[in-house]
Amino acid sequence: MSSGLLRATLTLLTGGVLAHALPLLLGPALTRLYAPGDFGQYALLWAIATNLAVVACARYEFALPLERSPRRAALLMALCARLLLAATAISTLLALALFLGQGMALAWLLPAGVLAISATQWLTLWATRAQRFGLLSAARLAQQGGGAVLQVLLGLFKAGPVGLLLGPIVAGLGAAWLLARPAPQGGWRRMVRQRLPRLKAMAAHHRDFPLYNTPHAFMGALQDTLALLLVAAWAGDAAAGFWALALRYLKAPATLLGGALSQALYPQLLQARSAAEARALVRRAMLALALLAAPLAAVLLLWGPELFTWVFGAQWGDTGTLARGLGLYIGLHFIASPLSVVTLAWRAQPWALRLSLVGQAVFFTGLVAGLHWGGLAGAAWGVSASMAAYFLYYFRALAFWSDIPHESLA
């Protein structure tokens, strides 16, 4: 890694380690305060909220680092704010439909979940544009660590799935408030009332983000939602809880390091002076991630069942079996997750969207075949086997990418 990228990543990791250490350390307490069925219900509603939240601003927030003018960036922020309010209103109507049509008692928390996730994501990109990495670390600590602490406290009062949901919602709203104060680089709030033609012009200028990145992000989030639905339909809420817990903790290292690296890598790619320098940044990041992913996958393959049973308790033993089967997939996902910003920086969203659709088909082919032939454990091995070729193709394509547009370079 370059010294600038390494320094920024380490700054983000300072808060990120604490933010993710708390959920990991409190995990054994959570699995003893909440039943697998509680985790299954929580995971399903949270997956629906995530699906809506990742596209709440139509992905225009990811265009913020591309805007060099503070005034134009403020106008883009105003556009995001309007879209976020509209998405929250739509999620309120969906919550009502879920409550009345499906009898989903937890649906009343859906709009708050959408607002918490989307506001944090939006304001994180605003702080990333200004390279306020210390603030990003503090916000991540408030969001991830605070959410886990609140879940434990609510679990002591036997709050059930409501407690699992309220924890990250309250913590996410707190992190969003922290990221919004003070507002860097000018008062974007004054521009929320800008006339519609100016907002439309800004939306048209960055139309690639809603056209290509929005369906890409939505399909990525939809993968988790549909996977949970399939597992729950096949084997019930408890099995969905096992699946959700496994992925929650197995993806934690990727979320920790991947989030920090991607937030630092994105502006570095935009500041690269040549295509060769940009490719070199990506290759160094990829190699560093691979060196970290290999021992992680090896531990899961060798000691996954024993490790999860020891940490989370005997009732979660099936989660360890899932962890072993998902080991290869988790290792490859660990490398791929931070690299999602590369196609944003290189204006390759159409290619990324097409590839993601192929990835969705490959993922569900492995999942369904695994469920059919080997149950829950078979699903894990099926996903690992089917996704290996997909990820390897993705890594090779980025490492040798040749069509880097001039406007993506400094």
How is this structure best summarized?
With 410 residues, the protein is mainly alpha-helical. The protein folds into 2 domains: 1-206, no CATH class; 207-410, no CATH class.
SSE topology:
Layout lengths: L2 H31 L2 H18 L16 H33 L7 H20 L3 H24 L4 H20 L15 H10 L2 H28 L1 H14 L1 H19 L4 H38 L4 H9 L1 H10 L3 H6 L3 H51 L11
Relevant terms:
410 residues, mainly alpha, 2 domains, 81% helix
Low-confidence parts: none
Strand percentage: under 5%
- The helix/strand order is HHHHHHHHHHHHHHH
> Class by helix and strand content?
mainly alpha
Number of helices: 15
Summarize the amount of helix as a percent range.
over 70%
Characterize the main sheet.
none
Number of domains: 2
User: Shape, please?
Assistant: globular
Question: Mean pLDDT across all residues, rounded?
Answer: 87
Write down how many β-strands occur, each being a DSSP E stretch of 2 or more residues.
Answer: 0
Radius of gyration: 21 Å
What does this structure look like?
The protein has two domains: 1-206, no CATH class; 207-410, no CATH class. 81% of the residues lie in helices and 0% in strands. It contains 15 helices and no strands. The protein has helices at 3-33, 36-53, 70-102, 110-129, 133-156, 161-180, 196-205, 208-235, 237-250, 252-270, 275-312, 317-325, 327-336, 340-345, 349-399.
